[in-house]
From TrEMBL:
The keyword Acyltransferase applies. The keyword DNA-binding does not apply. Pfam families: Acetyltransf_3. Gene3D superfamilies: 3.40.630.30. Keywords: Acyltransferase, Transferase. Its EC number is 2.3.1.82. This is Aminoglycoside 6'-N-acetyltransferase. One of its GO terms (molecular function) is aminoglycoside 6'-N-acetyltransferase activity. Residues 9-167 form the N-acetyltransferase domain. It is an enzyme of class 2 (transferase).
Length: 173
């Protein structure tokens, strides 16, 4: 039987019980290398998880994180940030996946499932940006139908780099 969308993963709210798994991948220097976030204390991470557990989903004009969990075990393996435009029509995304879960198509599965949900909310355009050295992310965005729309100089974690911008229409790709 062919695997269906979200068959290996489940998108769900982050929760305080995710603290250990969340901190494990967020403190991994290889996972954090190209991310805008930085590792934080357990107390700060727990406060963040508490906030995300209670926050309304997909708010307009601010970021909301949802968890990516293994369907079978429920164990958190990553998270996706979603920042919906004030008009609700566009979304910027960012994503992180534990190193042990990378290279298996799980991020692609999770993002495809997210895009379906966003389409149901009336979202029409998706945006993402990444460091030009993040080849895995760039390849994934292209596989998902994103097109490069621009480049500019930026700073990631104190290091100057070229940042690539990508866009995609919801429902395409």
């Amino acid at each position: 039987m062919a695997e269906t969308l979200e068959s290996r993963i489940k998108l769900r709210r982050l929760q305080p019980a995710d603290l250990q798994a969340f901190q494990a991948y967020r403190r991994d220097p290889e996972v954090a290398r190209f991310q805008g976030w930085s590792a934080q204390s357990d107390a700060a991470a727990l406060a963040f998880l508490d906030a995300m557990a209670e926050a309304p989903p997909f708010p307009r004009g601010s970021w909301w994180q949802l968890g990516v969990a293994e369907r079978a075990s429920g164990r958190l393996i990553g998270d996706i940030g979603v920042c919906r435009d004030p008009d609700g029509l566009g979304v910027e995304i960012g994503f992180s996946l534990a190193r042990s879960a990378q290279g298996q198509g799980l991020a692609q599965e999770a993002l495809q499932a997210l895009f379906v949900r966003l389409g149901h909310l009336g979202v029409q355009q998706l945006r993402a940006h990444t460091d030009a050295r993040n080849h895995a992310c760039i390849a994934l965005l292209r596989r998902l139908g994103f097109a490069e729309t621009g480049r500019e100089w930026a700073e990631y974690k104190g290091e100057r780099c070229e940042e690539l911008r990508f866009e995609r229409v919801v429902g395409v790709g």
